[in-house]
């Protein structure tokens, strides 16, 4: 019996002075393992008189339980200490200043698009989008440009197959909108368009347009003029003047091309406007009654106007960018200037 007490005291004193989990586990093996000090005691039980065995067995079990209880407590204590140390070492002072983070900047085309969008939305327009891979039907036919019509040559088209093209303008979204919505319609349709144009300072095979479409009862050319004036003045300043020249688009009648005062030289004439003082910025017109009809609207009841802005052109004039390719090269030295 004394030996049990002695072994237990010895084990407990070792346990109390242990300060690592590994040492603790190793001690447990030495005490409770198969050949451990307490287990070995049980093996000696056979040498005792039968009436002494139960008392002895019980005492050994009590010693085992006492050791295990202290073992668990010590294990928890060490594990907690490890956790605390880890938390303390991983603590982050969120009030410390960070290193300098360079802020990005919106692409000039995005900035100019948002300016146009905001003016239009204040006047009650919604934004709608259409696919860049477009059916010939929407890109041409419903816009009064049937197959073999010479007007198809106005835009050099990328064909995916005879029925599908990369849209050459944002005007197909007009047809899609008229077919699925009842007037009054007031929408703008921004997006990328594609043409097989030779690349130079003012032409890119991919560029951006913003289409505008208004259909209602009693819409007139005066409404179109007012809208174009409002957009261009918001973009280039109140003193901007606009000039409507007769133009031709199969889907509008009458059609016009619009020039705006060159915002760089304010009309005096400079290299950007080739000395003219004004620059062409968009095409527009009253929606052709044939187009209204093909899209299921009665031209006797409804009229409307449409316009197509070349976003790259608008942006380049605003910022004095002389080469359209800069808009697509993602050179950070160019982009940084638009903070
Ligand atoms: C059209 O695309 C007509 N859909 C516009 C329209 C809409 C007219 C609604 C009437 C009613 P146009 O081909 O002229 O028209 O192109 C419009 C603008 O896109 C041009 O004024 C020009 O700014 C720009 N643009 C045309 N081709 C290119 C090109 N290759 N690269 C960059 N911009 C271009």
Offer a few descriptive terms.
339 residues; alpha+beta; three-stranded antiparallel sheet; 41% helix; elongated; binds adenosine-5'-[phenylalaninyl-phosphate]
What does this structure look like?
The longest helix has 37 residues, at 53-89. This protein has helices at residues 2-17, 21-32, 37-43, 53-89, 108-122, 136-139, 172-180, 221-236, 289-294, 311-319, 326-329, 332-335; strands at residues 126-127, 133-135, 159-161, 164-166, 185-194, 206-216, 242-249, 252-261, 278-287, 303-310. The protein has a seven-stranded mixed beta sheet with strand order 1-5-6-10-9-8-7, sandwiched between helices. A three-stranded antiparallel beta sheet has the order 2-4-3. The chain has 339 residues and is an alpha+beta fold. The radius of gyration is 41 Å and the shape is elongated. The structure holds adenosine-5'-[phenylalaninyl-phosphate]. Adenosine-5'-[phenylalaninyl-phosphate] (FA5) binds at residues 155, 169, 171, 195, 197, 203-204, 207, 209, 211, 249, 252, 255, 280, 282-285, 306-308, 310, 312-313, 324. Residues 155, 169, 171, 195, 197, 203-204, 207, 209, 211, 249, 252, 255, 280, 282-285, 306-308, 310, 312-313, 324 line the site of adenosine-5'-[phenylalaninyl-phosphate].
Layout of SSEs?
Elements: H1 2-17, H2 21-32, H3 37-43, H4 53-89, H5 108-122, E1 126-127, E2 133-135, H6 136-139, E3 159-161, E4 164-166, H7 172-180, E5 185-194, E6 206-216, H8 221-236, E7 242-249, E8 252-261, E9 278-287, H9 289-294, E10 303-310, H10 311-319, H11 326-329, H12 332-335
Parallel strand pairs: 1-5
Antiparallel strand pairs: 2-4, 3-4, 5-6, 6-10, 7-8, 8-9, 9-10
The chain binds adenosine-5'-[phenylalaninyl-phosphate].
Adenosine-5'-[phenylalaninyl-phosphate] binds at residues 155, 169, 171, 195, 197, 203-204, 207, 209, 211, 249, 252, 255, 280, 282-285, 306-308, 310, 312-313, 324.
